[in-house]
Amino acid sequence: MLDNSRLRIAIQKSGRLSEDSRELLSRCGIKVNLHTQRLIALAENMPIDISACPR
């Protein structure tokens, strides 16, 4: 269950915007492993949940 005190961000799981979204997260200093098959990933260094949505 997700905690309501965490920021939730949705990005495309694959497709045209996917790589740019991942790069933006990285440039913002958000460390997250999105290479797994899970639909939700937790940022390692911030209270952020990343949802990988299908196109």
TrEMBL record:
<keyword id="KW-0808">Transferase</keyword>
<keyword id="KW-0328">Glycosyltransferase</keyword>
<protein>
    <submittedName>
        <fullName>ATP phosphoribosyltransferase</fullName>
        <ecNumber>2.4.2.17</ecNumber>
    </submittedName>
</protein>
<dbReference type="GO" id="GO:0003879">
    <property type="term" value="F:ATP phosphoribosyltransferase activity"/>
</dbReference>
